[in-house]
Fold these 3 entries.
Entry 1:
Amino acid sequence: MFFAFIRSPVIFRIIHKIIHTITDKKTKLIWQKCSNGQYNDTRCSGESKFYEWEEAYNLCGSLKLAGKKWRIPTVAELTTLIIAGYQNPSIDRIAFPNTRSSYYWTSTIYNSNVFVLWYVDFDNGYVAYKDKQYSENRLFLRCVSGEWYSD
Protein backbone atom coordinates (compact mmCIF):
# COMPACT_ATOMS: atom_id res chain seq x y z
CA MET A 1 0.00 0.00 0.00
CA PHE A 2 1.47 3.35 -1.04
CA PHE A 3 0.47 6.93 -0.34
CA ALA A 4 1.94 10.11 -1.77
CA PHE A 5 2.66 13.12 0.41
CA ILE A 6 3.24 16.19 -1.74
CA ARG A 7 4.57 19.44 -0.37
CA SER A 8 5.19 22.77 -2.00
CA PRO A 9 8.83 23.79 -2.50
CA VAL A 10 10.66 24.08 0.77
CA ILE A 11 11.80 27.66 1.22
CA PHE A 12 11.82 27.79 4.99
CA ARG A 13 15.02 25.89 5.74
CA ILE A 14 18.14 27.22 7.39
CA ILE A 15 21.40 25.42 6.72
CA HIS A 16 23.88 25.18 9.58
CA LYS A 17 27.11 24.28 7.83
CA ILE A 18 29.28 24.24 10.95
CA ILE A 19 27.19 21.75 12.89
CA HIS A 20 25.91 19.78 9.89
CA THR A 21 22.21 20.22 10.59
CA ILE A 22 19.18 21.70 8.85
CA THR A 23 16.60 23.60 10.89
CA ASP A 24 13.06 23.72 9.56
CA LYS A 25 11.54 27.04 10.58
CA LYS A 26 7.99 25.78 10.01
CA THR A 27 8.13 22.55 12.03
CA LYS A 28 10.95 23.65 14.38
CA LEU A 29 12.62 20.29 13.75
CA ILE A 30 16.38 19.95 13.38
CA TRP A 31 17.53 17.38 10.81
CA GLN A 32 20.78 15.64 10.10
CA LYS A 33 22.07 17.19 6.90
CA CYS A 34 23.62 13.91 5.72
CA SER A 35 22.13 10.44 5.78
CA ASN A 36 23.72 8.12 8.32
CA GLY A 37 26.95 6.64 7.04
CA GLN A 38 27.92 9.68 4.98
CA TYR A 39 30.65 12.15 5.89
CA ASN A 40 29.48 15.41 7.44
CA ASP A 41 31.08 17.54 4.73
CA THR A 42 29.40 20.06 2.42
CA ARG A 43 28.49 17.39 -0.16
CA CYS A 44 27.59 14.57 2.24
CA SER A 45 30.15 12.45 0.45
CA GLY A 46 30.58 8.76 1.01
CA GLU A 47 27.99 6.04 0.99
CA SER A 48 24.92 6.23 3.15
CA LYS A 49 24.31 2.99 5.02
CA PHE A 50 21.13 1.04 5.57
CA TYR A 51 20.09 -0.47 8.88
CA GLU A 52 17.69 -2.88 10.49
CA TRP A 53 15.16 -0.94 12.56
CA GLU A 54 16.70 -1.72 15.96
CA GLU A 55 20.13 -0.63 14.69
CA ALA A 56 18.57 2.60 13.40
CA TYR A 57 16.83 3.21 16.73
CA ASN A 58 20.06 2.75 18.67
CA LEU A 59 22.06 4.85 16.22
CA CYS A 60 19.76 7.88 16.45
CA GLY A 61 19.53 7.51 20.23
CA SER A 62 23.32 7.62 20.59
CA LEU A 63 24.07 10.23 17.90
CA LYS A 64 26.42 12.99 19.05
CA LEU A 65 25.72 15.97 16.81
CA ALA A 66 25.24 19.65 17.64
CA GLY A 67 24.65 18.86 21.33
CA LYS A 68 21.10 17.66 20.58
CA LYS A 69 19.07 14.57 21.49
CA TRP A 70 18.26 12.60 18.31
CA ARG A 71 15.58 10.07 17.33
CA ILE A 72 14.01 8.39 14.31
CA PRO A 73 11.41 10.74 12.78
CA THR A 74 7.71 9.95 12.57
CA VAL A 75 6.15 9.49 9.13
CA ALA A 76 4.45 12.90 9.51
CA GLU A 77 7.83 14.51 10.22
CA LEU A 78 9.80 12.78 7.48
CA THR A 79 7.19 13.54 4.83
CA THR A 80 7.63 17.27 5.49
CA LEU A 81 10.92 16.93 3.57
CA ILE A 82 9.21 15.75 0.36
CA ILE A 83 8.99 18.37 -2.38
CA ALA A 84 6.27 18.30 -5.04
CA GLY A 85 7.61 17.63 -8.52
CA TYR A 86 10.97 16.32 -7.31
CA GLN A 87 11.98 12.74 -8.00
CA ASN A 88 15.14 10.72 -7.67
CA PRO A 89 15.34 12.08 -4.95
CA SER A 90 12.13 13.84 -3.89
CA ILE A 91 13.90 16.10 -1.37
CA ASP A 92 15.67 19.48 -1.33
CA ARG A 93 18.99 18.53 -2.94
CA ILE A 94 20.78 21.65 -1.72
CA ALA A 95 19.80 21.29 1.93
CA PHE A 96 20.19 17.48 1.87
CA PRO A 97 22.83 16.69 -0.78
CA ASN A 98 23.52 13.14 -1.95
CA THR A 99 20.32 11.75 -0.38
CA ARG A 100 19.61 8.21 -1.58
CA SER A 101 16.51 7.78 -3.73
CA SER A 102 15.35 4.96 -1.54
CA TYR A 103 13.48 3.93 1.60
CA TYR A 104 14.05 5.70 4.94
CA TRP A 105 12.85 4.48 8.34
CA THR A 106 10.22 6.23 10.45
CA SER A 107 9.11 5.45 13.99
CA THR A 108 5.39 5.39 13.13
CA ILE A 109 3.58 2.13 13.82
CA TYR A 110 1.24 0.82 11.13
CA ASN A 111 -2.32 -0.10 12.16
CA SER A 112 -1.51 -0.78 15.85
CA ASN A 113 1.03 -3.48 14.93
CA VAL A 114 4.25 -2.67 16.79
CA PHE A 115 6.25 -4.85 14.38
CA VAL A 116 5.18 -2.98 11.24
CA LEU A 117 6.39 0.57 10.59
CA TRP A 118 5.85 3.20 7.92
CA TYR A 119 8.77 4.26 5.73
CA VAL A 120 9.27 7.09 3.24
CA ASP A 121 10.54 6.42 -0.29
CA PHE A 122 12.66 9.40 -1.33
CA ASP A 123 12.68 8.23 -4.94
CA ASN A 124 9.08 9.30 -5.52
CA GLY A 125 7.76 10.66 -2.20
CA TYR A 126 5.52 7.70 -1.44
CA VAL A 127 5.10 6.09 1.96
CA ALA A 128 4.43 2.45 2.71
CA TYR A 129 5.12 -0.01 5.52
CA LYS A 130 7.47 -2.89 6.32
CA ASP A 131 7.80 -5.46 9.05
CA LYS A 132 10.77 -4.37 11.18
CA GLN A 133 11.44 -7.93 12.38
CA TYR A 134 12.76 -9.24 9.06
CA SER A 135 16.52 -8.80 8.81
CA GLU A 136 16.28 -8.19 5.05
CA ASN A 137 14.25 -5.04 5.80
CA ARG A 138 17.25 -2.74 6.03
CA LEU A 139 16.50 0.89 5.20
CA PHE A 140 18.37 4.19 5.15
CA LEU A 141 18.21 6.66 8.01
CA ARG A 142 18.12 10.39 8.72
CA CYS A 143 17.72 11.33 12.40
CA VAL A 144 15.74 14.28 13.73
CA SER A 145 15.83 16.38 16.87
CA GLY A 146 13.08 18.45 18.43
CA GLU A 147 9.55 18.25 19.78
CA TRP A 148 7.19 15.80 18.09
CA TYR A 149 5.52 17.31 15.05
CA SER A 150 2.25 16.30 13.42
CA ASP A 151 0.71 17.91 10.38
Entry 2:
Amino acid sequence: MQNISLFIKRAELHQNEEYIRNIFAQKNIGVVDTLNFIKKHSENGKEYNGVIVTFKYWFSNDYTKSLINQLTTKTNDGLVKLFIEKSVYWYVSIHQKKMEINKCDELQKIDANLSDKDRIKQLELLVNNLSTQLYYMQKKQETNEQMLMTNECKNMKHHIYNVELEHSILEINILNEELKEENELLKKENDQLMKNNNALNECIGYKNEEIVTLKQESNDLYVMNNYNENMIEELHLLTFQTLIYPTGGIKK
Protein backbone atom coordinates (compact mmCIF):
# COMPACT_ATOMS: atom_id res chain seq x y z
CA MET A 1 0.00 0.00 0.00
CA GLN A 2 1.43 3.35 -1.01
CA ASN A 3 1.66 6.07 1.60
CA ILE A 4 -0.13 9.39 1.09
CA SER A 5 2.17 11.93 -0.53
CA LEU A 6 1.87 15.69 -0.18
CA PHE A 7 2.64 18.45 -2.64
CA ILE A 8 4.07 21.74 -1.40
CA LYS A 9 2.88 24.33 -3.88
CA ARG A 10 5.73 26.77 -3.14
CA ALA A 11 8.87 26.26 -1.08
CA GLU A 12 11.52 28.98 -1.08
CA LEU A 13 15.03 28.10 -2.27
CA HIS A 14 16.51 28.23 1.23
CA GLN A 15 13.97 25.66 2.40
CA ASN A 16 16.11 22.66 1.49
CA GLU A 17 15.62 18.94 2.04
CA GLU A 18 16.86 18.97 5.63
CA TYR A 19 14.64 21.95 6.49
CA ILE A 20 11.52 20.29 5.06
CA ARG A 21 12.25 16.94 6.76
CA ASN A 22 12.66 18.70 10.11
CA ILE A 23 9.38 20.63 9.69
CA PHE A 24 7.35 17.44 9.19
CA ALA A 25 9.14 15.78 12.09
CA GLN A 26 8.64 18.79 14.40
CA LYS A 27 4.97 19.02 13.45
CA ASN A 28 4.67 15.32 14.38
CA ILE A 29 3.18 14.61 10.95
CA GLY A 30 5.46 11.79 9.88
CA VAL A 31 8.86 10.56 8.73
CA VAL A 32 9.74 11.78 5.23
CA ASP A 33 11.05 9.16 2.83
CA THR A 34 11.87 11.12 -0.35
CA LEU A 35 11.56 14.69 -1.61
CA ASN A 36 11.19 15.59 -5.27
CA PHE A 37 11.99 19.25 -6.01
CA ILE A 38 10.44 20.86 -9.07
CA LYS A 39 11.94 24.15 -10.24
CA LYS A 40 9.39 26.91 -10.81
CA HIS A 41 9.33 30.66 -11.49
CA SER A 42 6.90 33.31 -10.29
CA GLU A 43 5.38 35.93 -12.59
CA ASN A 44 8.18 38.35 -11.69
CA GLY A 45 10.84 35.74 -12.46
CA LYS A 46 11.67 34.71 -8.88
CA GLU A 47 12.70 31.08 -8.51
CA TYR A 48 11.09 28.68 -6.05
CA ASN A 49 10.37 24.97 -5.77
CA GLY A 50 7.30 22.81 -5.88
CA VAL A 51 8.01 19.77 -3.69
CA ILE A 52 6.52 16.27 -3.72
CA VAL A 53 6.85 14.84 -0.22
CA THR A 54 6.70 11.05 0.06
CA PHE A 55 6.42 9.63 3.56
CA LYS A 56 7.99 6.54 5.02
CA TYR A 57 5.64 6.72 7.96
CA TRP A 58 2.68 8.89 8.90
CA PHE A 59 2.04 9.47 12.60
CA SER A 60 -1.47 8.91 13.94
CA ASN A 61 -2.57 11.85 16.08
CA ASP A 62 -5.16 14.61 16.25
CA TYR A 63 -3.02 16.98 14.18
CA THR A 64 -2.60 14.58 11.25
CA LYS A 65 -6.33 13.75 11.38
CA SER A 66 -7.18 17.46 11.29
CA LEU A 67 -4.78 17.94 8.39
CA ILE A 68 -6.32 15.03 6.46
CA ASN A 69 -9.84 16.35 7.17
CA GLN A 70 -8.87 19.67 5.61
CA LEU A 71 -7.07 18.04 2.67
CA THR A 72 -10.12 15.90 1.79
CA THR A 73 -12.56 18.80 1.98
CA LYS A 74 -13.53 20.05 -1.48
CA THR A 75 -14.63 23.48 -0.30
CA ASN A 76 -11.02 24.67 -0.08
CA ASP A 77 -10.03 23.11 -3.45
CA GLY A 78 -7.75 20.64 -1.64
CA LEU A 79 -5.28 23.38 -0.62
CA VAL A 80 -4.42 23.75 3.06
CA LYS A 81 -2.21 26.25 4.84
CA LEU A 82 0.48 24.36 6.75
CA PHE A 83 2.08 26.85 9.14
CA ILE A 84 5.82 26.27 9.57
CA GLU A 85 6.37 29.39 11.65
CA LYS A 86 4.04 31.91 13.30
CA SER A 87 3.31 33.84 10.10
CA VAL A 88 4.97 31.61 7.52
CA TYR A 89 3.11 28.78 5.83
CA TRP A 90 3.08 26.45 2.84
CA TYR A 91 0.11 25.66 0.67
CA VAL A 92 -0.03 21.87 0.61
CA SER A 93 -2.34 19.38 -1.10
CA ILE A 94 -2.60 15.65 -1.63
CA HIS A 95 -0.21 14.66 -4.40
CA GLN A 96 -2.48 13.17 -7.04
CA LYS A 97 -1.21 9.75 -7.96
CA LYS A 98 -2.83 6.40 -8.48
CA MET A 99 -3.19 4.54 -5.20
CA GLU A 100 -2.04 0.94 -5.55
CA ILE A 101 -3.96 -1.32 -3.20
CA ASN A 102 -1.95 -4.47 -2.54
CA LYS A 103 -1.78 -6.97 0.25
CA CYS A 104 -0.35 -5.61 3.45
CA ASP A 105 3.28 -6.51 2.87
CA GLU A 106 4.78 -3.91 5.22
CA LEU A 107 5.11 -6.59 7.90
CA GLN A 108 7.63 -8.38 5.71
CA LYS A 109 9.83 -5.26 5.70
CA ILE A 110 10.56 -5.50 9.44
CA ASP A 111 14.00 -6.93 10.03
CA ALA A 112 13.67 -10.21 11.85
CA ASN A 113 17.13 -9.72 13.33
CA LEU A 114 16.05 -6.68 15.37
CA SER A 115 15.61 -6.95 19.08
CA ASP A 116 12.13 -7.35 20.43
CA LYS A 117 12.13 -3.75 21.62
CA ASP A 118 13.14 -2.42 18.19
CA ARG A 119 10.69 -4.74 16.45
CA ILE A 120 7.89 -3.46 18.73
CA LYS A 121 8.91 0.12 17.93
CA GLN A 122 8.85 -0.63 14.21
CA LEU A 123 5.49 -2.34 14.55
CA GLU A 124 4.08 0.65 16.43
CA LEU A 125 5.31 2.98 13.67
CA LEU A 126 3.77 0.66 11.09
CA VAL A 127 0.43 0.53 12.92
CA ASN A 128 0.36 4.32 13.28
CA ASN A 129 1.13 4.68 9.60
CA LEU A 130 -1.56 2.19 8.58
CA SER A 131 -4.05 3.86 10.94
CA THR A 132 -3.42 7.21 9.26
CA GLN A 133 -3.70 5.60 5.82
CA LEU A 134 -6.99 4.00 6.86
CA TYR A 135 -8.27 7.29 8.26
CA TYR A 136 -7.39 9.07 5.01
CA MET A 137 -9.15 6.45 2.90
CA GLN A 138 -12.22 6.59 5.16
CA LYS A 139 -12.36 10.39 4.88
CA LYS A 140 -11.77 10.14 1.14
CA GLN A 141 -14.59 7.62 0.89
CA GLU A 142 -16.90 9.87 2.93
CA THR A 143 -16.03 12.82 0.69
CA ASN A 144 -16.61 10.75 -2.45
CA GLU A 145 -19.94 9.48 -1.11
CA GLN A 146 -20.99 13.05 -0.32
CA MET A 147 -19.98 14.07 -3.83
CA LEU A 148 -21.90 11.12 -5.26
CA MET A 149 -25.01 12.10 -3.31
CA THR A 150 -24.58 15.73 -4.40
CA ASN A 151 -24.10 14.67 -8.02
CA GLU A 152 -27.11 12.34 -7.86
CA CYS A 153 -29.18 15.20 -6.47
CA LYS A 154 -27.92 17.45 -9.27
CA ASN A 155 -28.64 14.74 -11.84
CA MET A 156 -32.17 14.36 -10.47
CA LYS A 157 -32.69 18.13 -10.64
CA HIS A 158 -31.33 18.14 -14.20
CA HIS A 159 -33.62 15.22 -15.09
CA ILE A 160 -36.66 17.02 -13.67
CA TYR A 161 -35.60 20.20 -15.44
CA ASN A 162 -35.16 18.30 -18.71
CA VAL A 163 -38.59 16.68 -18.35
CA GLU A 164 -40.14 20.08 -17.67
CA LEU A 165 -38.20 21.51 -20.59
CA GLU A 166 -39.39 18.72 -22.89
CA HIS A 167 -42.96 19.34 -21.73
CA SER A 168 -42.53 23.06 -22.38
CA ILE A 169 -41.10 22.33 -25.83
CA LEU A 170 -44.07 20.05 -26.57
CA GLU A 171 -46.48 22.80 -25.50
CA ILE A 172 -44.59 25.31 -27.64
CA ASN A 173 -44.75 22.96 -30.64
CA ILE A 174 -48.50 22.51 -30.15
CA LEU A 175 -48.91 26.27 -29.83
CA ASN A 176 -46.83 26.77 -32.97
CA GLU A 177 -49.06 24.35 -34.88
CA GLU A 178 -52.16 26.18 -33.65
CA LEU A 179 -50.62 29.50 -34.63
CA LYS A 180 -49.70 28.07 -38.02
CA GLU A 181 -53.29 26.97 -38.62
CA GLU A 182 -54.59 30.32 -37.41
CA ASN A 183 -52.16 32.09 -39.73
CA GLU A 184 -53.38 29.99 -42.67
CA LEU A 185 -56.98 30.95 -41.88
CA LEU A 186 -56.02 34.60 -41.50
CA LYS A 187 -54.14 34.44 -44.81
CA LYS A 188 -57.19 33.00 -46.56
CA GLU A 189 -59.42 35.59 -44.91
CA ASN A 190 -56.99 38.33 -45.92
CA ASP A 191 -56.95 37.10 -49.52
CA GLN A 192 -60.76 37.15 -49.57
CA LEU A 193 -60.78 40.66 -48.08
CA MET A 194 -58.36 41.80 -50.76
CA LYS A 195 -60.66 40.37 -53.45
CA ASN A 196 -63.65 42.08 -51.81
CA ASN A 197 -61.72 45.36 -51.63
CA ASN A 198 -60.79 45.13 -55.30
CA ALA A 199 -64.42 44.44 -56.19
CA LEU A 200 -65.57 47.36 -54.04
CA ASN A 201 -62.96 49.66 -55.60
CA GLU A 202 -64.15 48.64 -59.04
CA CYS A 203 -67.74 49.22 -58.01
CA ILE A 204 -66.85 52.61 -56.54
CA GLY A 205 -65.17 53.48 -59.83
CA TYR A 206 -68.32 52.64 -61.74
CA LYS A 207 -70.41 54.64 -59.29
CA ASN A 208 -68.08 57.63 -59.59
CA GLU A 209 -68.47 57.47 -63.36
CA GLU A 210 -72.27 57.35 -62.93
CA ILE A 211 -72.09 60.34 -60.59
CA VAL A 212 -70.08 62.31 -63.17
CA THR A 213 -72.59 61.35 -65.85
CA LEU A 214 -75.54 62.26 -63.61
CA LYS A 215 -73.92 65.60 -62.73
CA GLN A 216 -73.46 66.35 -66.43
CA GLU A 217 -77.04 65.37 -67.21
CA SER A 218 -78.25 67.45 -64.26
CA ASN A 219 -76.27 70.43 -65.52
CA ASP A 220 -77.65 69.97 -69.01
CA LEU A 221 -81.18 69.81 -67.60
CA TYR A 222 -80.53 72.96 -65.59
CA VAL A 223 -79.39 74.80 -68.75
CA MET A 224 -82.39 73.52 -70.70
CA ASN A 225 -84.70 74.50 -67.88
CA ASN A 226 -83.28 78.05 -67.83
CA TYR A 227 -83.65 78.28 -71.57
CA ASN A 228 -87.25 77.10 -71.41
CA GLU A 229 -88.04 79.53 -68.61
CA ASN A 230 -86.58 82.38 -70.67
CA MET A 231 -88.64 81.33 -73.69
CA ILE A 232 -91.80 81.15 -71.58
CA GLU A 233 -91.18 84.65 -70.20
CA GLU A 234 -90.71 86.00 -73.74
CA LEU A 235 -93.93 84.28 -74.86
CA HIS A 236 -95.79 85.73 -71.87
CA LEU A 237 -94.45 89.17 -72.68
CA LEU A 238 -95.40 88.85 -76.32
CA THR A 239 -98.89 87.66 -75.45
CA PHE A 240 -99.37 90.53 -73.03
CA GLN A 241 -98.34 93.12 -75.63
CA THR A 242 -100.63 91.58 -78.21
CA LEU A 243 -103.56 91.91 -75.91
CA ILE A 244 -102.81 95.56 -75.15
CA TYR A 245 -102.01 96.59 -78.69
CA PRO A 246 -104.05 94.28 -80.86
CA THR A 247 -103.67 96.31 -84.09
CA GLY A 248 -100.75 98.49 -83.64
CA GLY A 249 -98.14 96.03 -82.49
CA ILE A 250 -95.78 96.88 -79.79
CA LYS A 251 -95.59 100.54 -79.07
CA LYS A 252 -92.16 101.80 -78.60
Entry 3:
Amino acid sequence: MALAIEVVRTDNNERETISCASSPVRIGRSPLNNVVLAAPWVSLHHGLIHFDEQHANYSDLGSTNGTTVMVKDQEMKLHPMVPMQILGAGQPTAELRIGVITLRVRWETPSATGVPSAPALAALRTALRDAVQEPSANPVPAAAAPPQSP
Protein backbone atom coordinates (compact mmCIF):
# COMPACT_ATOMS: atom_id res chain seq x y z
CA MET A 1 0.00 0.00 0.00
CA ALA A 2 1.19 3.53 -0.72
CA LEU A 3 0.46 6.96 0.65
CA ALA A 4 -0.77 9.98 -1.26
CA ILE A 5 0.18 13.29 0.30
CA GLU A 6 -1.56 16.40 -1.00
CA VAL A 7 0.48 19.49 -0.16
CA VAL A 8 -1.65 22.66 -0.02
CA ARG A 9 -0.33 26.18 0.59
CA THR A 10 -3.31 27.94 2.16
CA ASP A 11 -1.78 31.40 1.54
CA ASN A 12 -1.67 31.03 -2.28
CA ASN A 13 -3.69 27.81 -2.85
CA GLU A 14 -0.82 26.00 -4.64
CA ARG A 15 -1.41 22.23 -4.63
CA GLU A 16 0.71 19.21 -5.37
CA THR A 17 0.06 15.52 -4.74
CA ILE A 18 3.00 13.24 -4.02
CA SER A 19 2.83 9.45 -4.12
CA CYS A 20 5.00 7.62 -1.60
CA ALA A 21 5.34 3.88 -2.19
CA SER A 22 7.86 3.10 0.53
CA SER A 23 8.32 3.93 4.18
CA PRO A 24 9.63 6.09 5.76
CA VAL A 25 8.55 9.36 4.15
CA ARG A 26 10.79 12.27 5.09
CA ILE A 27 9.27 15.76 5.18
CA GLY A 28 11.15 19.05 5.37
CA ARG A 29 12.92 21.89 3.60
CA SER A 30 16.00 19.89 2.56
CA PRO A 31 16.03 18.56 -1.03
CA LEU A 32 17.01 15.18 0.46
CA ASN A 33 13.45 14.73 1.77
CA ASN A 34 10.70 12.80 -0.05
CA VAL A 35 8.29 15.72 0.48
CA VAL A 36 10.16 19.01 0.09
CA LEU A 37 8.46 22.07 1.59
CA ALA A 38 10.29 25.19 0.46
CA ALA A 39 9.28 27.61 3.21
CA PRO A 40 11.46 29.34 5.81
CA TRP A 41 9.32 28.17 8.77
CA VAL A 42 9.80 24.50 7.81
CA SER A 43 12.83 22.79 9.35
CA LEU A 44 15.36 21.07 7.10
CA HIS A 45 14.23 17.69 8.50
CA HIS A 46 10.81 18.51 9.93
CA GLY A 47 8.88 15.25 10.21
CA LEU A 48 8.73 11.58 9.33
CA ILE A 49 5.89 9.22 8.38
CA HIS A 50 6.41 5.50 8.96
CA PHE A 51 3.75 3.26 7.44
CA ASP A 52 2.89 -0.35 6.74
CA GLU A 53 -0.20 -2.03 5.25
CA GLN A 54 -2.46 -1.03 8.15
CA HIS A 55 -1.10 2.03 9.97
CA ALA A 56 0.77 5.27 9.43
CA ASN A 57 2.53 7.17 12.21
CA TYR A 58 3.90 10.72 12.09
CA SER A 59 6.78 12.03 14.20
CA ASP A 60 7.89 15.64 14.44
CA LEU A 61 11.68 15.47 14.40
CA GLY A 62 12.16 18.31 16.89
CA SER A 63 11.35 21.02 14.37
CA THR A 64 11.59 24.68 15.38
CA ASN A 65 7.95 25.52 14.65
CA GLY A 66 6.33 22.14 15.28
CA THR A 67 3.50 20.27 13.57
CA THR A 68 -0.21 20.38 14.25
CA VAL A 69 -2.44 17.37 13.57
CA MET A 70 -6.16 17.75 12.97
CA VAL A 71 -8.07 15.06 14.87
CA LYS A 72 -11.87 15.12 14.59
CA ASP A 73 -11.84 18.87 13.81
CA GLN A 74 -9.58 19.66 16.76
CA GLU A 75 -5.97 20.80 16.51
CA MET A 76 -3.33 18.87 18.44
CA LYS A 77 0.23 20.18 18.66
CA LEU A 78 2.63 17.24 18.50
CA HIS A 79 5.44 16.69 20.97
CA PRO A 80 8.83 16.27 19.31
CA MET A 81 9.99 12.71 18.69
CA VAL A 82 6.71 11.16 19.92
CA PRO A 83 5.04 9.17 17.09
CA MET A 84 1.31 9.63 16.62
CA GLN A 85 -0.87 7.29 14.59
CA ILE A 86 -2.43 9.31 11.77
CA LEU A 87 -3.90 6.53 9.59
CA GLY A 88 -5.36 3.19 10.54
CA ALA A 89 -8.66 1.49 11.33
CA GLY A 90 -11.33 4.19 11.24
CA GLN A 91 -8.79 6.82 10.13
CA PRO A 92 -8.63 6.79 6.30
CA THR A 93 -7.21 10.34 6.06
CA ALA A 94 -5.15 12.71 8.16
CA GLU A 95 -4.33 16.39 8.06
CA LEU A 96 -1.00 17.80 9.23
CA ARG A 97 -0.28 21.53 9.41
CA ILE A 98 3.09 23.24 9.31
CA GLY A 99 2.47 26.98 9.26
CA VAL A 100 0.29 27.76 6.22
CA ILE A 101 1.12 24.39 4.63
CA THR A 102 -1.44 21.62 4.99
CA LEU A 103 -0.52 18.00 4.26
CA ARG A 104 -3.53 15.79 3.55
CA VAL A 105 -2.40 12.19 3.93
CA ARG A 106 -4.45 9.24 2.68
CA TRP A 107 -4.03 5.68 1.49
CA GLU A 108 -3.51 5.47 -2.24
CA THR A 109 -5.22 2.84 -4.37
CA PRO A 110 -2.82 0.38 -6.05
CA SER A 111 -3.89 1.44 -9.55
CA ALA A 112 -2.90 5.03 -8.78
CA THR A 113 0.62 3.98 -7.77
CA GLY A 114 1.43 2.57 -11.20
CA VAL A 115 1.50 -0.98 -9.82
CA PRO A 116 -0.54 -3.20 -12.15
CA SER A 117 -3.43 -5.19 -10.76
CA ALA A 118 -3.30 -9.02 -10.66
CA PRO A 119 -5.44 -9.40 -13.84
CA ALA A 120 -3.26 -6.87 -15.67
CA LEU A 121 -0.12 -8.77 -14.63
CA ALA A 122 -1.64 -12.07 -15.81
CA ALA A 123 -2.50 -10.55 -19.21
CA LEU A 124 1.04 -9.17 -19.50
CA ARG A 125 2.58 -12.57 -18.68
CA THR A 126 0.38 -14.24 -21.32
CA ALA A 127 1.31 -11.66 -23.95
CA LEU A 128 5.02 -12.05 -23.18
CA ARG A 129 4.82 -15.85 -23.24
CA ASP A 130 3.00 -15.76 -26.60
CA ALA A 131 5.55 -13.33 -28.03
CA VAL A 132 8.44 -15.58 -27.01
CA GLN A 133 6.81 -18.76 -28.36
CA GLU A 134 5.80 -17.38 -31.78
CA PRO A 135 8.56 -16.89 -34.36
CA SER A 136 8.83 -13.33 -35.56
CA ALA A 137 7.10 -12.46 -38.84
CA ASN A 138 10.04 -10.21 -39.74
CA PRO A 139 13.21 -12.01 -38.70
CA VAL A 140 16.32 -9.93 -38.32
CA PRO A 141 18.61 -10.60 -41.31
CA ALA A 142 21.93 -12.22 -40.55
CA ALA A 143 24.94 -10.02 -40.99
CA ALA A 144 26.53 -10.31 -44.43
CA ALA A 145 29.85 -12.10 -44.51
CA PRO A 146 32.80 -9.80 -45.17
CA PRO A 147 34.19 -9.97 -48.71
CA GLN A 148 36.99 -12.46 -49.19
CA SER A 149 40.30 -11.03 -50.31
CA PRO A 150 42.02 -12.75 -53.32
